Amino acid sequence: MTITTGHTIDRCLVVTGMPGAGKSTVTRLLGQRFPRAARFDGDDLNRMLVNGFVWALGEPADEAARQVELCDRNLCSLATNVAAAGFQPIIDSVIASRRRVDLMLEQLKPLDVVLVVLAPSIESCRTRNAHRDPRERFDFDGYEDLEVRLREELGDVAHWLDSTGLTAEHTVDRVIGLFDDAAVRPPGRR
User: Fold this and answer.
1) pLDDT tens across 77-102, in order?
2) Taking Cα atoms as reference points, which of 11, 4, 22 lies closest to residue 170?
3) What's the sign of the alpha-carbon dihedral 96, 98, 102, 103?
4) In this prediction, what percent of the chain has a pLDDT beyond 70?
5) FRET pair for 187, CA 20 to 30 Å: which of 12, 76, 118, 171?
């Protein structure tokens, strides 16, 4: 059975960036800007694995990679399902490789994808992370390497937004501007 509303959504918004970049705050606020929206957080999906979970940089590495791919596939399945039902899908996940972007683009078909990297300064990310509720804090010491990897892997396929001096609301305004831009095309598709 397919659930439809007659108002199928044709785009998916994917927001990524380093820990502390503001993804969760921004995607929650973004969801409020659409009349019908659904937000999917990769961390929340990972928490559904109640036993045997291996985090993305954990060991064994092959199992970590398998679980990252499982999370991405589930994020995309949920997004395409809610889009077909007339809800704007918004994905919040740390995506640091072109291979993962390509997999997600394939899984999200026929949706167009607007990929936004929130890219505040590393110091801003560290500060934001340090001021989070301890239950939300993410112990991470690889900011410099992750920033380089994000630039190398996603530099030409994503919209980059330096949100260092922006409030969450102003960041959301900028992301909406990218989303609304009629010239936006998903990476790799023209």
Assistant:
1) 999 999 999 999 999 999 989 999 99
2) 22
3) negative
4) 92
5) 171
Label residue 99 exposed, middle or buried (CB < 10 Å: 0-12, 13-18, 19+).
Answer: exposed
pLDDT for the residue 175: 95
Q: Residue 150 has which token pair?
A: 């994000």
Kind plus residue range of the DSSP H or E element containing 69: helix 61-84
Strands 159-161 and 37-41: unpaired
Task: Indicate the burial class of 168 (C-beta count within 10 angstroms; 0-12, 13-18, 19 or more).
Answer: middle
Average confidence (pLDDT) over 44-66: 89
Show the tokens assigned to 160: 């980059």
Looking at the predicted structure, is the pLDDT value of residue 174 above 50?
yes
Q: What is the per-residue burial (b if ≥16 Cβ within 10 Å, else e) of 34-49?
A: beebbbbbbbebbeee
Average pLDDT value for residue range 39-49? 93
